[in-house]
Design a protein that fits this description.
The chain has 100 residues and is of the alpha+beta class. The chain contains two helices and three strands. It starts with a strand and ends with a helix.
Length: 100
């Protein structure tokens, strides 16, 4: 396995592996290609997990908004407001479904 990155002793200096080039004394392998692939796969899994969590939070917030409109409508009912409130609730729920 060829290293992908080399690090110079205990410093922050890092160089990328290049074909036909071998770093001189003091440079040591930092990551192999397998390690980079594993880190990238881990980042992809984390990103998908975060996206799923965000979707749940957005859906929950939209549902709370729809329920709040329904409750406000019950407290302050007028026929025109009632129709408009139902329109808003339907629009919010449609927005939530369009995110799926």
């Amino acid at each position: 396995m060829k290293p992908v990155l080399y690090r110079y002793r205990d410093s922050e200096s890092v160089i990328k592996h290049m074909d036909g080039y071998t770093p001189g004394e003091g440079w040591e392998p930092l990551y192999s290609q397998d390690q980079v692939d594993q880190l990238q796969a881990q980042l992809v899994r984390q990103q998908k997990s975060y996206e799923a969590e965000i979707k749940v939070e957005i859906d929950s917030a939209l549902e709370r908004a729809a329920e709040e409109i329904k409750q406000l409508n019950k407290r302050h009912w007028f026929s025109k407001q009632s129709d408009f409130a139902e329109f808003l609730v339907d629009a919010i729920r449609a927005l939530k479904e369009s995110k799926e």
